[in-house]
Amino acid sequence: MAVYPRPGAPPFRPAASGHYARHSFDTPRASGLASPRRVMNPSDSPSRASVPLAGNSVIEFRGVHYRAPTGNTVLKNFALVIESGETMVLLGRSGAGKTTALKLINRLLEPSAGEIRVDGRSTAEWDAIALRRHIGYVIQETGLFPHYTVEQNVSVTPQLEAWPRARIRRRAEELLALVGLDPTAFLARYPHELSGGQRQRVGLARALAADPPILLMDEPFGALDPLTRAEVRREFQQLQMRLRKTVVIVTHDVAEAVELGTRIALMEAGELKRVHAANEFLRSDDPIAAAYVAQIRALALNGAQKPESPREEPSHS
Amino acid sequence: MSLAEYFARNGGQIFSATAEHMWLTGISMLLAVAIGVPLGILVARRPWTSKPILGSANIAETIPSLALFGFLLPLPWLGARGDRIAIAALTLYALLPIIRNTAAGINSVDPAVREAARGMGMTEAQILRRVEMPLALPTILAGIRVATVWTIGIATIAAAVGAGGLGEYIFRGLAMVNNNVILAGAIPAAALAIAADILLGLLERRMRPERRSSLRRPGASPAAGLGAGAGAVALLAIFLVSGLAGCGGERKDTIVVGSKNFPEQALLGEILAQEIEAHTHLHVERKFYLAGTFICQQAMLAGRIDTYVEYTGTALTAILKDPVEQNPQAVFDKVRRQYQRRFHFTVLPSLGFNNTFAIVIRGQDARRLHLTTISEAAKYTPKWVAGFGYEFMGRPDGYAGLVKTYGLKFAGPPKILDLGLLYRALLDREVDLVAGNSTDGLLAARDLTVLQDDKHYFPPYQAVPIVRDQTLERHPELRAAIEALAGKISDAQMQKMNYEIVGQHRDISQVAREFLRSSGLA
Asked: B233-241: long-range contacts (C-beta < 8 A, 24 or more apart)?
């Protein structure tokens, strides 16, 4: 991924313009954006080609049930194995149980039945705090601490892990560079002084701070406008190529799933329907996947007829 | 005297009252924060505790402040000192906004922020300390601000239980019907409240995360946080230190003379003050019109006054809580011993007069029937109508015992009259016998006769100067100066002087000066 730009340049990649999202709708699409063609043609997506399936499970759901405090069953007999270094996408509509599954991994929720194993150990045996520090966590709203600067935000986990001060400082600069933000410009800023895209990058940097082997991402790009979203997504993809974390992403966006995922777990009403390799998902004969894709396509076509939103058009046509 | 003059002349006293006020408020707020913030956290963490905790704080809030001070009076340790009562009550009042705002501040933390904190592997304690508390701080400060402003206001009422502070001026001013004195309490209290409101408001705004900026003053943000924190500490420090300074300092050669809130007391205070000024080199401060016996006692205990004149019967029943007793010498001895032992106050010999109940009839009736004692009047009373004050009817040393002791019968039940109307009713022949006070000024000014209490039914209320032992140790010359007044004021003399003050509206210090001169004292 492109590290932050030339010294002295405006804060962040003006050519891409995605970080100045509010001004970018009327600008012509910049060259750096993921092209729809690439999304449609999975074979040239770089992540897929470069991530080998190591074959050792890092996260494993075994017959997991989850019943919410309200009594609703949110997850039914959920079983899924996530391999080391792969990016597993949990895809489905709202209420399908994707986020619940994700939070069961870092024990923000406890299963009503069954077990989740992380690194071969049941999460119930893990100390919850140790488990969470072993796992990076990125959420849609970023959850950045508003009273902390960017530097303080990305330094939280290293501080909790009692790293030496100088190392924390170095790591903070390194992290910002990693997510494409100029440390000199951004370390001292507060979250409310950042654009949505910048905030999301800091959120990612914070999750990566202590170099956790596992990264959980809950609709990480959902709050961004389409241009910024595409850009941050692509950058993440390139980052993942280098870092090779075990990643679980929750999304309802088929394009995102196909672009980022190694495999896609399709969920519906608390049940796991199918797991597809991402590059086969769109052309699968599986009726459930096909129905999902058809719905999205219909929506996209609808959108295409409206002249105000031409950007939606190419994605799934 | 103009207000400005009054402030200029009494600046030192007003300042120390202000300092005392700040001390009361500061201590109460410190306690309220120490109790309220943890309770607020508990309410936020365990929502089921919200109802009992906020409910109780709410109920405390609805108790009228004067009543709450009253409820705390009989408590064993707390009720013994006015400042303890005041601090307890003020703390209780300050709790609700602090608990409520702490809970609200924590609950208003963005759930995404809390989820991120948990997801990062922060423990509950770390989330509270590093995330929730800093983010709730502006809201908590807003609660503290409201509570502080209230407390400064309510603390003026604390003077009613003898806690001192600026309220003392307000109560004294009301009793004296003197606007300067009222304003000497009200203006500093209002200024304190406004200052606290502004300072805490500034602090609160500084703490808001959206007000922090990397751009406005690059690199200054940690210093800004530090500055705000230091500001809060400094404010509290000012409140507490100024309180201590005001209580402890600037009183080396000054004697503070107090009095209760009626004219006879103010006159006795003035006589005491002038006598001390004439025979010692001490500077005398006058703190007259304190709102009642309990307040004077509290002021003595706290060292806010050094001396005042008490009545032996009142000391026995109201302060020592002993039963009524008739023998004057026995009462005096008992009061002197007990005061010495329990309070380290010295009771000096009586000034001479006895301000007890007096059974009064018209002078012409007394002369016509040759009556000088209550016993002699008993055979005429069946044809008379009696008029008594409401208090006299209820007191243990009042109506019932009087009737029994002398076998009195009246023509019908006694009329209950307001104290101010008793003598008028007697002179207008609406009633034929009343119970007044033996030093009432009208007794000297009108044709009225006090019947002797020949069976010694009424307990003695001899006027005795009381001085703190500490003060006497520091200034032994005080004793001689005050003892020179022993036995110098007779009942008749006191009646006359009361009449001059109340009936003729003469200046108290003038009347005192004339008395001392005519008695060969000053």
From this structure: B235/B196, B235/B199, B235/B200, B235/B203, B236/B26, B236/B29, B236/B30, B238/B22, B239/B22, B239/B23, B239/B25, B239/B26, B239/B29, B240/B22, B240/B23, B240/B26, B240/B27, B240/B30
CB distance A149–B214 less than 8 Å?
yes
Q: Does A193 touch chain B (CB under 8 A)?
A: yes
Class of domain B357-451: alpha beta
- CATH class of the region B7-209+221-248: mainly alpha
Alpha-carbon distance of A84 to B53, in angstroms, equals 50
Tokens of B399: 């109506």
Yes or no, beta carbons of B119 and A137 under 8 Å apart: yes
Contacts of B516 (CB under 8 A, 6+ apart): B271, B274, B275, B278, B522
Q: Are B289 and B268 in contact (CB under 8 A)?
A: no
- The average pLDDT across B292-299 equals 86
What's the complex ipTM?
0.75
Determine the Cα–Cα distance for residues B122 and A17; give it in Å rounded to an integer.
35
Select from 3.40.190.10, 3.40.630.30, 3.30.230.10, 3.40.47.10 the CATH code of B254-354+462-518: 3.40.190.10
Question: With a CB-CB cutoff of 8 Å, which residues 241-300 of chain A face chain B?
Answer: none
DSSP symbols for B34-63: HHHHHHHHHHHH-GGGHHHHHHHHHHHHHS
pTM over 0.90: no
- Domains parsed from chain A with CATH numbers: 42-282 (3.40.50.300)
Q: Which amino acid, A248?
A: V
Residue B304 has pLDDT above 50, yes or no: yes
